[in-house]
Automatic annotation (TrEMBL):
Protein name per UniProt: Transmembrane protein
Keywords (A to Z) from UniProt: Membrane, Transmembrane, Transmembrane helix
Domain of life per record: Bacteria
Entry's transmembrane regions: 22-41, 62-86, 98-121
Amino acid sequence: MTGITALKTDRRSFFHRLARSASFPLVLLAACLLWLEDWLWEPLAQLMQRLGRLPLLCRIEALIRAAPPWLALACYGIPMLVLLPFKFAGLWLFARGHFLFGGGVFLLAKIAGTAVAAHLFTLTRASLMKLAWFARLYAGFMKLRDYAYCRVRRNRLWRLTRIGRWRLGRKLRSLA
């Protein structure tokens, strides 16, 4: 290997390592948001399912389940778009220094959006998966989510935190 080739390889590996380490906080933030959504998904879907037992909502849900793919997409997407301004308002308030109020607005919009999305996705999933582009997008999203989780789990600080939490739990159990 010539000196110039070795220098180019070293420079590429340096920039690659720099990009990977600089991107980790963004991956961590994305993983935290995805984890929050995953954590809330099932309980909120069950809560919405209980609300769906009301007679009027039961009839509406039956119509949504029977909807063709494009109508199912509208039924799934429109409520998410309605909640988007509230999320932006929460972020705007947060950026303006109203940390508690802005964070609260954003968090409430996120929880409401997750509850509605979880329930509507349960109702429309079979129909939505008939749209080839949606099925590919969903598969890609799941791969991206798994990548973010895997990257965070491989991080040394994450592993040390998990080990510390495990040791603390063991010590607390031994005291009880």
